[in-house]
Amino acid sequence: MSESMSGAASEASAQVGPDEPAVLVELDEAECLRLISAGGVGRIAFTGRFGPTVLPVNYKLHEGTIVFRTVEDSPTDEDLRTGIANAEYKVAFEIDDFSLAAREGWSVLIQGALHHVESEAERASVRESGVQPWASGPRELYLRVIPSRMTGRRITRKPAAASG
Asked: Would the pTM of this model clear 0.90, i.e. be above it?
């Protein structure tokens, strides 16, 4: 079994040890999009009725937005509605991958508006994303995070300079 949380072994981590010096690199938007393009599990963060809330969800990147599904009228749905027509909730969405053994990894943070997909035309579009929740039961409410800001960083281990 891989030591990476995503199931993919890092080629670089096989060549250097966790005692090598760490290098923190800021990622540009293109690299962030490349890293998250496959979809998977991310975390939606928002201020809910009981305070700060962070929940894991299955997501897909679709037409430049993050798409995920939940249960209509669920606590998550209720927390993410403003009660004001056409007003959208501000959220953060985080995706990462790391190797505990190599002490390496990356993270991408997306900040933006959360949009409830309600029109039939938009619903047909987001269905094309193929996002499938892991949890059982009907999860027919599609939600989109429309990015206004995307940042990322990667921490890697560089091999020590050879002496001699």
From this structure: no
